[in-house]
Amino acid sequence: MKDRSTKADITAAVLLDEDTLMLFGAIDQPLPADSMVMLDGMIDGRFRGGCWTDGAGERWFLGAIRVTGLAHMRPSRIEIEDARGKHLLLPRLSNVRTNPAHLVAALREVQPQSLGVALDVAVTLLSGPEMGEGEAGDGDRRTRLLSGLAHEASRPDGFAEVLGRFRDGALMVQGWSHGFPAGTAPVLVEADDLRPHASSAAPFHRPDLPDDASGLLTVLEGPVAAPDTIRRIHFRAADGWRHLAIFEHRQLLADGVASAHARDMLGQLQGDAARRGVASAIAARYNGVETVSQIQAPVRMGLDMAVRVPGAGLFVCGWLLDPTQAVRAVTVKGGGMTARLDADWSRLARKDVSDAFAHDPLFAGRLPPGNDAHGFTAFAREPAGISADAEFHLELSLADGIAFLPLPCQPPTGESLRRMLGAVNPDSPAIDRVVSTHLGPMLRTAASGQPAPSSVLHPMGRALKSPRVSVVLPVCDGREDVDLNLARMANDPDFAEAEILVVAGAGTHERLAGMVRQAAGFYRLSVGFVAAPTAADPFEAVAAALPHARADRVLLLSPSVLPTERGWLSALERAIRKPNAVGSAALAPVMVSPTLLYEDHSVRFAGIVAVEGPDGMVTYERRFAGYPRDWLKEQEASAVDAASADCALLPRDLLVRAMADGGRYLGSEPKGLDLCLRVRAAGGSCLWLPKVRLVAVDEQSRNARDPRLERMSALVDEWSFAERWKASIAA
């Protein structure tokens, strides 16, 4: 197809955001309402336009061009594809503005009689999803354009006298007007911004009004701006744009009153179709009352739990008994959010629900034996900007109406998140998607809002002015035998000038503090007992103890690691002062670990290295794990990809930098490797010292754990680790 040049005069061109350009001008041929646009024959985007003919027979148009990054382009050739595939060439643009008032002024000057038509076109162009939302702050230009056109084109026509918000953000307006359209129609609500809303309206008789005016009751679909911020409500009457002004002594109904007030007005409304439309709009509003139990069809619903992570989304677990498939949709709503749950939920067997309703007359004969898949778990991601205290509810759509169920959400505490994980089926075929789309982001957001574990230091034993090293001994289980660790350190001259921070995390035995105080006094050690009851694992315990560490170097030491000889700390210090490992940076701060052996003297830790598989995937492996110690031939320090957090010496400032950007995981398994990668990201390196060997007792967990919960936690942690480190691992 050949291009067709158009005879056009672009009167005004305004950038509404980084990607959207609005054009106004005269043209000699029709433009398509929605089509492709090409810039310089290479870059494509969308064009939406509208044309009208003025009284003199001249054709004018408003058009919006949407191309990614358009604000940074200077196209010399703009082609719009028409319905027949031909390209219409627009003249080259000049004098592109960013102030929408320029376009409004141009319309007022050259087409004042067509301002209403221009507003029609602008509302259509800027309200569609094809035009996008622009970047943060760009919506102000769209608002200014629509507001400017509305102020020029809209004329006064009545008042809004009573306003009340429904719980879902919709708005009831009562007042009077000469020409507000009955039935369903779009309106523009002018507040701090100007936004389009659908309205359902009906008139009613008021003896205090002229014959050509009537009372008005309308429901505007939400979320609508707060009633006390609304300045005008613009609507399209038969003869052009008009608006309701806000009555000076308008009445603002209290929350929850709008539904009852609107229902009381239904009997006064005129026009059967319009009255039914308003009645349907009112019935579709949630007023805080549960109505599922009132459904005449065999449908019932119950909730087991709902957890909300503000900024991420909601998790809902419950059951829906619907043997006749009467429910068409289950939607969560609240705070301006609307999300379908049943489109992507996981169904679970709930025989207890079948048994509970087996003898209910409403369900008798309708529950097939063995068909117990009534339970569900579902997630809903929430958009940005929803209030942290927003209220939510479930909406059940039926063939003949809507029913509601309040959705009280628990905050994302440790217990509620564990219950949420325990409710999800790790064997679901969609578990990878559930973790990556819902669970992972929710838990990551919840973790980011958690404060660091609090701690209180209790000095015990001998006072030490300037410690040589700070030893952090985290205790997060019921053990009370750390006196053995203190005895080993007391027998080693390396620890004579060390401060030992025993961190009592969650689950520690009540007698631990007394035992530590007794051992510190007996062995004349400098001990700080750090009470950190919210520290759930050794890594959180280290974070809690770090503010109390006074030495320049910190030794991370698990209570399960026991030395077999003296002087090993000095060997680690020499490796830090003068790293001589092949591949290590001479000036980089170092995190160094010794060899750790199991009790049978087989290898537990001899460095962790990254291994690339045949598929290009990188995994981290413990070298020689389980091998006899005789397999270790190295003598000098070796550079490795990760040290062992069970026993590692590193500079305090390096540890502080690494812990400041700590990843949050559900279990402690990935945290050691994560810490080492953060050490390296902070400019450090990791070393393994082969000739220094300690025994690491292979202890069983003292806390009983749910295997299902353990599996789910591992899946989420695997995703979290990959999300955090995939870029650096790939590099």
Overview of this structure, please?
By secondary structure, the chain is α+β, with helices and mostly antiparallel strands. It folds into 5 domains: 8-130, Immunoglobulin-like; 154-284, Sandwich (Immunoglobulin-like); 292-430, Immunoglobulin-like; 451-559, Spore Coat Polysaccharide Biosynthesis Protein SpsA, Chain A, CATH 3.90.550; 560-699, no CATH class. 24% of the residues lie in helices and 34% in strands. The protein has 15 helices and 36 strands. It has an 8-stranded mixed sheet with strand order 1-8-7-4-5-6-3-2, with helices on one face. Helix 1 packs parallel to helix 3, helix 2 packs antiparallel against helix 3 and helix 9 (483-490) runs parallel beside helix 10. It is elongated and about 105 Å long. It starts with a strand and ends with a helix.
Strand order of the largest sheet: 1-8-7-4-5-6-3-2
Helix content: 10-25%
| Rounded Rg | 35 Å
Query: How many extended strands?
Result: 36
Give a short account of the largest sheet: 8 strands, mixed
How much is the average pLDDT?
A: 88
Shape: elongated
**Tally of separate helices:** 15
- Residues in β-strands, percent: 25-35%
Oligomeric state of the chains in view: single chain
Low-confidence runs of at least 5 consecutive residues: 129-138
Class per helix and strand makeup: alpha+beta
Tally of domains: 5
> Gap between N and C termini, in Å?
48 Å
